[in-house]
């Protein structure tokens, strides 16, 4: 009797674990996917170490909505298009990794950077200067990479500065962007026309972002197919400035539950 009772207990434990994994898998596939910010390409909207849940209901579902892109259908179901200014997580068209950027251009839009100023359909966007973005010059996050600074060189522990502006898109969406240098190839581009079924994405940290300004042939992102969009980043749930999440003294409590704008 004791052996049978022990066997039943083990079986119940196994079933509980299997059910929990199934529920977690369904939740991750249909509703929210966790995402950890690994790089500084979206500063100061998103910092290295921000942890958020991606809203997968926002744009419907494609094969990339399932882990390992295993959803058994083509196209998108229950789909809706992102709006200009949305911060989205998407599967890179060729590398198979997940990126997070801001949607700047929609199908048919003409996008160009001229002397560091974004132009949409031939019209420059509105820029409002803000106070510089400041951070300590130190190695950040699990990758332990130092930030890039407009006031280089900066010694360890010094204040790293970046020029900051509020950028207002044609639909009225405003967000912060950062500038480190002037005159690079990211600041002066050809005019891109966004094809049907795609979006043009950029990082808010404009001089430190691999995005649609660079074609896939040179390691960039290029135009992102709508079907590759996994979901929208709506809210930061947790944030840690340290190399490990368990380093509680590096937690940024002021960023907990902050909306992504």
UniProtKB/TrEMBL annotation:
Reactions it catalyzes: Cleavage of hydrophobic, N-terminal signal or leader sequences from secreted and periplasmic proteins
GO terms, biological process: signal peptide processing
Active-site residues, record numbering mapped to chain: 41, 101
Domain of life: Bacteria
Keywords recorded for this protein, A-Z: Hydrolase, Membrane, Protease, Transmembrane, Transmembrane helix
Topology in membrane: Single-pass type II membrane protein
EC code: 3.4.21.89
Ranges for domain Peptidase S26: 11-237
GO cellular component, one term: membrane
Protein name per Swiss-Prot or TrEMBL: Signal peptidase I
Compartmental location: Membrane
Alphabetical list of PROSITE patterns matching this protein: SPASE_I_2, SPASE_I_3
Transmembrane segments: 17-37
Natural source organism: Roseicyclus mahoneyensis
MF GO annotations: serine-type endopeptidase activity; signal peptidase activity
CDD domains from the UniProt entry: S26_SPase_I
């Amino acid at each position: 009797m004791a052996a049978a009772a022990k066997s039943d207990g083990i079986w119940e434990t196994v079933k509980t674990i299997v059910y929990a994994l199934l529920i977690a898998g369904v939740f991750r596939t249909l509703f929210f996917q966790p995402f950890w910010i690994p790089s500084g390409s979206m500063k100061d909207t998103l910092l290295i170490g921000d942890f958020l849940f991606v809203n997968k209901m926002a744009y419907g579902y494609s094969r990339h909505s399932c882990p390992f892109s295993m959803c058994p259908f083509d196209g998108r179901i229950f789909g809706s298009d992102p709006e200009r200014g949305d911060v989205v997580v998407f599967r890179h068209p060729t590398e198979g990794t997940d990126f997070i950027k801001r949607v700047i251009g929609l199908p048919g839009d003409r996008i160009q950077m001229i002397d560091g100023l974004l132009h949409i359909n031939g019209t420059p966007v509105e820029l409002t200067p803000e106070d510089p973005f400041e951070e300590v010059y130190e190695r950040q996050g699990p990758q332990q990479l130092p930030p890039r600074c407009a006031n280089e060189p900066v010694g360890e522990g010094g204040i790293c500065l970046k020029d900051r502006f509020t950028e207002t898109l044609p639909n009225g969406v405003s967000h912060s962007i950062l500038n480190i240098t002037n005159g690079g190839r990211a600041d002066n581009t050809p005019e891109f026309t966004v094809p049907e079924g795609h979006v043009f994405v950029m990082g808010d940290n404009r001089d430190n972002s691999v995005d649609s300004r660079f074609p896939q042939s040179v390691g960039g992102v290029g135009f992102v197919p709508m079907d590759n969009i996994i979901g929208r980043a709506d809210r930061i749930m947790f944030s840690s400035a340290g190399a490990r999440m368990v380093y509680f003294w590096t937690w940024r409590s002021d960023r907990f539950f902050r909306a992504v704008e």
